[in-house]
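Ticket #4471: structure output looks truncated?

Reporter: J.K.
Steps to reproduce: submitted the chain below (128 residues) through the standard prediction queue, then opened the result file.
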Amino acid sequence: QLVESGGGWVQTGGSLRLSCTASGGTFGRYAMAWFRQAPGKEREYVAAIGWSGVSIDYADSVKGRCTISRDNAKNTVYLQMNRLKPEDTAVYYCAADVNFGYLKTPGGAGDSKRYDYWGQGTLVTVSS
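Returned output as attached by the reporter:
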């Protein structure tokens, strides 16, 4: 089970840190990712991190503004978001790939089909 938290309302230019805590399984072996879905739009890849935290990947839309990290001792993955824009408004979901701890799979880090478990989402609203 994956549970996200940390969403909320923030003004343009502000920051938020999202958390996703896993229960059950062996978190330290999983690749983890963040996706988001804005109203009326398809789900979009945001960032991913390999099992050890060394391999990291970002979507171009958030590169330089977001930092993904993980604490395997706490079974938690984080997404620090800075310089937020109204277009970042979305429900943010974390996802776990329990079969591959590495990011380099045929579909790549942003392939939603590789992720087996998803959280319920946390809403981020950025006002202009």
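Triage note (M.O.): checked the attachment and the full token line is present. The longest strand covers residues 90-97.
Status: closed, working as intended.
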